[in-house]
Amino acid sequence: MLVIRAPGRVNLIGDHTDYQDGLCLPMAIDREVEVRARERGDGLVVARSDAIGGVVELPADGTTDPASVEPRWGRSIAAVLQALAERGRSPIGFDMEVSSTVPLGSGLSSSAAFTVAVVIAAAEIGRFALDRRSIALAAQAAEQRATGLPCGVMDQMASVFGRAGHALLLDCRSLDIEAVPLPESAAVVVVHTGVPRRLEDSAYAERRSACEAAAAHLGVATLRDATPAQVADDPFARHVVSENQRVVTFVDALRAGDLDRCGRLMGASHESLRDDFRVSTHALDALVDALVDAGAYGARLTGAGFGGCVVGLVAGDAVDAVIARALARYRSTTGLTPMPIVVHAVDGAGRVD
Ligand code: GLA
Q: Is-above-0.85 flag for pTM?
């Protein structure tokens, strides 16, 4: 029996930058997908999930069109088999059981974690060597095919390259990663707004195209190459360029232990995502305000936006009090039911021995 785990992620700062070759600062979190797999001899992949239910049965050779697979969670498996077949994996079948502690549809990359776990399981069982960067890229390609969403590479890279106690400064152009230690005095708090999110329904693809159009208009390969002056009059592009700069400044502040400054940068990032990039919601804004008023250093929406979660940076010894105050206020102003999770940075995906 092969057991693979792959963590979800939370992004501390740097959203809607990855698909423009930009910078971001995710960390892999102690919420993860586990896949238990065993080879079978008939060339089929048969998958079961304890949480979602239903059985997925597919030929292992990658010939199934992901869009035709029901139940829907099987689409990622079909897409992984397709992506790996194209890269040369032989069609060896396996049984697979899936379980997960990553909340679904919340912006914590439950689907990227799942896809990464399936890539590693399928590669190991197929005796197909893939380096870690190729695992992340194959998982990204598979996720794009399974969902039709043109996602960037942040989530898969975070799930693969996570490091305990560290955030990851990811350069989405070179794919270089620098692990940045998280101060022990600070806690990272994720709070779900209580409003689910489905990215396929969101304006994610529209925003991505708008960025591509802005880059083309400026004559640069991506907005990574644009200057603040060049994008001063274009709110979408302005967000991307200013967000890259905030990631760099945030990392400096984190290394210096200046958590107040980190918090202010998170606030500026949220404002830019809300006002310039327009991916926030009333619930996200209310939750960010509630956390900051309750004493967090800072808070911002995390991931794509349009619902899902916010991330806050809070003094370790004040976590419980800050969460209690923020949640009470959020409940009374919105009538929604938030869900808090204190997360810890963990190592990236791999085999559990
Ligand atoms: C989603 C995508 C990522 C990234 C974020 C926004 O999580 O999957 O690639 O674009 O949104 O930063």
A: yes
